[in-house]
Amino acid sequence: MKKQDQISGEAWYAIEDSGIFDKLKASKGGLSPEEVKSRREIYGENKLPEGKKVTLLEIILHQLLNPLIFILIAAAIASVAIGEAKDAIFIFLVIFINSAVGTYQEYNAEKSAATLQKLLRIKASVRREEKQLKIPSEELVPGDVVLLESGIKVPADIRIIESSGLEIDESLLTGESVSVKKQSGTLNKNLGIAERTNMAFAGSTVLYGRGWGLVVSTGLETEVGKISKHVTESESAKPPLVQRMEKFIQQIGILIIVLSLIIGGMLHIQGLAIMDIFFFVVALAVSAIPEGLPVALTVALSIAAKRMAKRNVIVRKLNSVESLGSCTVIASDKTGTLTVNEQTAKRVILPDGSILNIQGEGYNGDGKVFRKNEPDKEIHFSENREIQKICRIAVCANEASLTKENNQWVHYGDSMDVALLGMSYKFGLDPENSSSEKDPPDLIPYESERKFSAAFCKNNNIDLKGAVETVLDFCDTMSIDGSPVELNRNFILEQADKLAKQGYRVLAFANRKCPNYEKKKNYEPEDIPKLTFYGLVGFIDPLRREAILSVEQCKKAGIKVIMITGDHPSTAKTLARELGIANEDTIVVNGKMLLEANSPNAKAYKDLVADSTVFARVSPSQKLEIVGVLIDEGEFVAVTGDGVNDAPALKRANIGVAMGSGTDVAKEVGSMIVVDDNFSSIVAGVEEGRFAYDNVRKVIYLLISTGAAEVILFICSILAGLPLPLLAVQLLWLNLVTNGIQDVALAFEKGEPGAMIRKPRSPSEKIFNPLMVKQTLVSSATIATIVFGLWYWINTYTEMEETHARNLILLLMVFMQNFHVFNCRSERVSAFKIPLKKNMILVFGVLMAQGIHILSMQIPFMQNILRIEPISLKEWFYILLLAIPIILVMELFKLFNAKNGKRTKAVEINSRN
Ligand code: ADP
Ligand code: MG
């Protein structure tokens, strides 16, 4: 097969069903590894050109195209004009270093975002050499046998060979929002894409049903590939927090420029030369405007995203990082999230009430079955008619596989179905051998809103398994001693409830042999005749032990945990009690109760949602309603989901959490993905989210308070009629050497121990809340007061030479900022209580800033530019002592704040109870 074939625009939909395999040199069992390899060489990877990446050049330009840089360049040119070339050199040095640091940070943030994106690639289910595999979809080649099931994204253009109830959303290609029914068959030539109903196109999503087919084209040759230029979506990459900050900086920038101009005016009145005033105003504006903030915030968020990925949470957009921290309710699935989803069939109850116990654990067929009261008599599937039937239903209405290869059990597919195959082995029935009987049944596949699956077999058997109530609705009789008797519905429901109360997940089994049922292409539930009930099977799915701890953690953090499940209310309650989210008195709200409470707007409905923590037998649409009610009540809700039907709820939620094992559809709408499905990972994500938000605040706090301190210092000096405490170049240097190194280091803070015993922050809370305003004012006033005090004292009481005096002031400012960064490590906890080793980057950053400054005082070139000189150790030490109060004052501030906080908290708690 040559590439030519593919390019020639073959009308794949019009080829005869039988001819398609020949044409693609393919077979039902799939390609061999050699064939795959050689085809990959011809056709390349199955992917579209990636969306435009941000290039290094763009990042550099982004750094340089900044009004402040223009002003600096103007200042540099002006210095050359008046013959101060060394100032110009220094200004260019500042521009260069600033932009280099900014570029490096931005580039890193971009790179780690790209790495995270890679983790989100979709996988395809293929059959190769008779084996079912999951492979990255890039590795598909024409001729591959691909499985389609509800929830997946179609990975390539596929000609459908077999299907049942397959419906696909092709809106990406056709713009048509109604899903299209798909089935095999040969079509006429010259059909539009929307009419090619025997094809599944890359990029569309399977909404219902199952099917399989052959890959006909990949990568750019697919229909979506041909128009790929139009569909590469352009995402606005900036998180809202960063956008808000940019706006904020614009505002603060204008304020500072106005202030600088006023200061300039005052300097003019004092008789300073215009050129000096110009330089000074530029330097003040550049230093005090926190232009590095957006990049520092992006860095903080992307560090957090990386940390979350390490804890199995992948965020799809940086803004979910900050929002996770304010989550007040986590609405979790049960199966797989709170439990390990390793189903094992443990118990069988027959319609006559007799009980069988099944040995063993996990996804394998090792174990035996015994009657409850006869532990030495092994039960074989041929024991009686009921057991025979249960086993055949288990094997036939089944989409999974479980086989033993080289003494290793290998499984594929739905966990309940795998567990049932395990059960069948234990009854002595090899599902592989019995498959001749089932081959190939037509399925009504399991979908969570249906709660059952059914098989229409060639030998006229109809097999059904699913939730008890659902299955019983299909039955009119039950089998006792091999013959059908009248159905005793209540008795069976009682037995099921008993199992559920012990924590078992329950499935019911029914069958009928009907000599004359109609053969069809697609079966609907209406096609199922009245059946005979054959028994119940109870499964154990162990709780995730770590989830118990995480629920505890949520309680401390003020987060409510609720369970929303499609499972039986009693099973749900038993597990919820073990987890600690329900007690004996908790009323489990079920789907029927919600239905009876009328609409989600009704008060009765709202009360049901507000009062309960466990929701069972809930349909996906009710899940959406519950989420809506919670959000309307002012909660900030994280919701987990995995199925196609969960997508609306995930979208509606403040934070949609898709399961790693879930469908592509869920992953696409979720704002984050929990790789290991684990509830504990979600809680870890919340914790990281809180850390990240704290860190963001720390960076902002540092930059704003030091900038403010500089402005206050200069205003005071001018009002007092003193000379400028720092020269323009010194101001630029200060900004470069301290904050340039220190601010990003704060983004690496590991998080404070108290973060998870605080109440969630309100999502509408502003970064500049009262605490931020207070701490910024207190700290900047303190810094300004001390430095101004020194400047005043020197000018009034000493004869110190001005150059030397400025040298001291500059060193004092460097020290102040060196120390203040330790204050910023926490807004609440004492700086002395946070171990230094938790952020060595910060410690090195501070030492480096101080070190570079001391070094510059020794280097003639720098001495010359900065008008500085070496100072004695004694002076250095005195200046260090002078800087210490900034720590002491902020320690007192925290202490005072904590006391106040406790008092208000106590009042709050009292008023709540
Ligand atoms: P959960 O919320 O715990 O994930 P599901 O929505 O997956 O619950 O399942 C709901 C009910 O559907 C289960 O209680 C069970 O009775 C039935 N069920 C689950 N899986 C299957 C399956 N593979 N075949 C038939 N019925 C199933
Ligand atoms: Mg489920």
TrEMBL record:
InterPro entries: ATPase_P-typ_cation-transptr_C, ATPase_P-typ_cation-transptr_N, ATPase_P-typ_cyto_dom_N, ATPase_P-typ_P_site, ATPase_P-typ_TM_dom_sf, ATPase_P-typ_transduc_dom_A_sf, ATPase_P-type_domA, Cation_transp_ATPase_P-type. Residues 11-84 form the Cation-transporting P-type ATPase N-terminal domain. It comes from the Bacteria. The keyword Cell membrane does not apply. Pfam families: Cation_ATPase, Cation_ATPase_C, Cation_ATPase_N, E1-E2_ATPase, Hydrolase_3. This is ATPase, P-type (Transporting), HAD superfamily, subfamily IC. Belongs to the cation transport ATPase (P-type) (TC 3.A.3) family. Type IIA subfamily. The lineage of its organism: Bacteria, Pseudomonadati, Bacteroidota, Flavobacteriia, Flavobacteriales. Its main location: membrane. GO terms for biological process: intracellular potassium ion homeostasis; intracellular sodium ion homeostasis; potassium ion import across plasma membrane; proton transmembrane transport; sodium ion export across plasma membrane. It is found in: Endomembrane system. It comes from Gillisia limnaea (strain DSM 15749 / LMG 21470 / R-8282). Keywords: ATP-binding, Magnesium, Membrane, Nucleotide-binding, Phosphoprotein, Translocase, Transmembrane, Transmembrane helix. The chain crosses the membrane at residues 64-82, 88-104, 252-271, 277-301, 699-720, 726-748, 776-794, 806-824, 836-856, 876-896. GO terms for cellular component: endomembrane system; plasma membrane. One of its GO terms (molecular function) is ATP binding. The keyword ATP-binding applies. It is a multi-pass membrane protein.
